[in-house]
Design goal:
binds S-adenosyl-L-homocysteine; two-stranded antiparallel sheet; globular; ten-stranded mixed beta sheet; alpha/beta; single chain
């Protein structure tokens, strides 16, 4: 069910493996799973209400299920996939959580409270195989995919630290890893985010960011109607090949042919493009003009992110004047553009700084999760 997930210890007293986690299943999948187990499938929505709606993880406390089912669930399934290992709070209110999985792997999630909304940025892999030249996660290498329970438990753990009366209103898949390389688990997690008895988020409050694994993009959007963000960073293959090595496999022509064919993209639901501005690499006025030309005819919004510097890369952001000029050039080219205010950089929580510094899982358990 979850290739790559570590085997859990046997359930004490029964000898039965407790690898199964209730949070690996969307309510619809749980209904099927319970039915197969000879358990009452129609209870799945109630269980989702307890796990996600009320944050109750002990099946024995799910008081509107009959006693027998509660005991069965407690004996057969885990319900928790992550523990909070460490929290850092930035001066701007951003909170980074380091979370520990059952096999000792560490991942990060970043909570970004604003006036109207609370956004959680979540991870989909331990590390990342794509090695983009400006990204700290890329430089730590790839350990494994997260399972669905580990993706949704990032919400369960991080919401516990929110002040009374605040809740997570938006989720962005912009943490560690490439979501489209872990698609089935990501889709199942999104179903849990959207299900009214679970987190009940509107689809447009969920954004999946991809480096541009072209064939997987329609596969994602056919299954869940979320926002799509594409990490572009360059408007020519020559520059993009250097920044985003996977561009050699899915070059711009193929990526944009795919994007243009998406039936879900419209002026109301544009594609978001992230463009990390890097000094002397992709920040010239000519780069902006190329970008405007590339995006012509496709409903789009560009999010410019001055690169957040980190210890694994010599690359740097341009100054504010260069960034402003770049933005002006795009706007003149008719492209809706925002310049992202970076949040959380004093705690290494900003885009591209997620790499689990300083705290290592025991190596024998983590399979070399941290290589720094
Ligand atoms: N793999 C997915 C999800 C990660 S999202 C993707 O590439 O979209 C993280 C976003 O932060 C991506 O747009 C990524 O390109 C950007 N990013 C990575 N390193 C960065 C850095 N050092 N400064 C600013 N943005 C960075």
């Amino acid at each position: 069910m979850n290739p790559g997930a570590g085997r859990g210890p046997a359930h004490p007293g029964t000898g039965r493996s407790m690898d199964e986690n209730l949070k690996d299943y969307s309510p619809i999948a749980l209904r099927r799973r319970l039915t197969r187990e000879g358990l009452p499938g129609y209870r799945a929505d109630q269980i989702a209400g307890w796990l996600y709606g009320r944050g109750v993880e002990d099946p024995r406390a799910m008081t509107d299920l009959d006693r027998d089912l509660r005991a069965q669930l407690a004996a057969r399934f885990r319900t928790r996939a992550l523990d909070l290992e460490h929290l850092s709070r930035a001066s701007d209110g951003t909170v980074k959580g380091v979370l520990r999985a059952g096999d000792g792997a560490l991942i990060e999630a970043v909570l970004i409270p604003e006036e109207e909304r609370v956004t959680l940025c979540i991870s989909t892999q331990v590390g990342c195989p794509l090695a983009c030249s400006f990204c700290a996660t890329g430089s730590m290498g790839f350990t494994r995919n997260l399972r669905t329970a580990e993706i949704v438990d990032q919400l369960c753990r991080m919401r516990e630290i929110l002040p009374e009366g605040r809740r997570i209103t938006n989720v962005v898949f912009m943490g560690m890893g490439e979501p489209l390389l872990n698609l089935p688990r990501v889709v199942e997690a999104i179903r849990i985010l959207l299900h009214p008895k679970a987190f009940g988020l509107a689809p447009r409050r969920v954004t999946v960011s991809t480096v541009g694994i072209a064939p997987k993009i329609p596969e994602l959007l056919e299954q869940v109607p979320v926002n799509l963000a594409v990490s572009l960073h360059a408007a020519t293959d020559e520059v993009r090949d250097r920044l985003v090595p996977i561009n050699r496999r899915f070059p711009l022509a193929e990526l944009f042919a795919t994007l243009r064919r998406l039936p879900t993209v419209s002026q109301r639901h544009p594609v978001f493009f992230e463009y990390t501005l890097i000094e002397g690499v992709n920040d010239a006025p000519e780069d902006a003009r190329n970008l405007a030309r590339l995006l012509r005819g496709i409903p789009s919004k560009v999010n410019l992110i001055p690169m957040n510097p980190h210890q694994d890369s010599p690359l740097r952001p341009p100054g504010p004047e260069v960034a402003g000029r770049f933005m002006g050039e795009l706007v003149r080219g008719g492209i809706t553009t925002t310049l992202r205010r970076s949040r959380g950089s004093d705690i290494d929580a900003a885009c591209g700084q997620l790499a689990v510094r300083g705290r290592r899982p025991p190596l024998d358990q983590a399979g070399g999760a941290t290589r720094r």
